[in-house]
Amino acid sequence: MKIVDVQCFPLKIKPKEIYLGGDPDEGAEDYYYRPEYRCVYSRKMETCLVKITCDDGHVGWGEALAPVVPQVAAQLITHLFKPLLLGASPFSGNVLNARMYNSMRDRGHTAGYHIDALAAVDVALWDLKGHILGQPVHQLLGGAFRERVPCYVSGLPRPTVEARCELAREWQGKNFNAVKLALGYGVAEDLDNVRAIREALGPQAAIFIDAHWNYSVHEAARLAEGLKAYDVGFLEAPLLPEDVAGHRELRRKSAVPVALGETERTRYQFRPFIEQRAVDILQPDVGRTGITELMRIASLAETWNLLVAPHLSVGLGPCIAASIHAAAALPNLFMLEFQPPVFEVANSLLRQPLVCAAGHYALPSGPGLGIEINEESVRENHRSDAC
């Protein structure tokens, strides 16, 4: 049994609602700079899917988290990884991962699009193995610690505090009793938002904060001190991700758990945060790590008695399904992220929808990732333009 084809599908999908409440200007360019996050975002939902086919007809789907220029990941897979994959056994995942990782070892291979592309292939290989063996991915990972995966509603993308409170109450009415606020607008404004959400949801709700790397150690410590009164569950991305020492100092000062990890892609990048006691909750994203590396990161975290809350932003069907399977198989899971507008788009590419209800993801039970890609819908949104 061997791999005979690798196909990539960079996608650009026009959503009903711009991710995190961005400007929906129809005449504007796809990409725009968001100064509050210091990142480029797209007005479309962008990703890169990969389809790997075996000589016996079995197929596996994967996905890279590629929210901008997804054709870059597609080009890397097509021209760099595909020659390494063709003719190989679909069960040689560790060997293939090592070859793909090493393929650019002397050319800045440790992060960025190269690892994102690797993650997509890794997810597809797990899906492929599951289909060949007739087993769900969580079973291949050693079994599920839980049949439903707890989650929190992420972002509350509304322009005013009042609108955010209303949206939070709507989700609470659907038995989603955990929310994360996308903030980082200054200590005082962030505390005003948290105070309003706490008053709107009551003491029983779980509230988390994403500060999007906007603070200094001193400012983040002030914010954490203020958050204590509102029983905030974690403070995510308070400092620039390069600042390991700053996170270590903040964690010593903060009564609120510190969370980070969406920018890191390998256990080597997570290791200094773990060893220097600079983090409480790790947030690897399967669309940037792949399933194999996410499980390695989680195992490393477990040896230090740390929790894992996988990051999940604009990844679509394969990325979400892979996150659910991995989360189910983690002994040290905290919660998984849930992005409602993204979830709707993701399900538009599937023949049977993924399910998230009453604060939990349902664990897909079919072989592999437990999803069936609607390839016609994928091809309708396929962007074949080269870099």
UniProtKB/TrEMBL annotation:
The keyword Iron does not apply. GO terms for molecular function: hydro-lyase activity; magnesium ion binding. Keywords: Magnesium, Metal-binding. SUPFAM superfamilies: Enolase C-terminal domain-like, Enolase N-terminal domain-like. Signal peptide: none annotated. GO terms for biological process: carbohydrate catabolic process. It comes from the Bacteria. Pfam families: MR_MLE_C, MR_MLE_N. Residues 161-257 form the Mandelate racemase/muconate lactonizing enzyme C-terminal domain. Its cofactor is Mg(2+). PANTHER family: ENOLASE SUPERFAMILY, MANDELATE RACEMASE, MITOCHONDRIAL ENOLASE SUPERFAMILY MEMBER 1. This is Galactonate dehydratase.
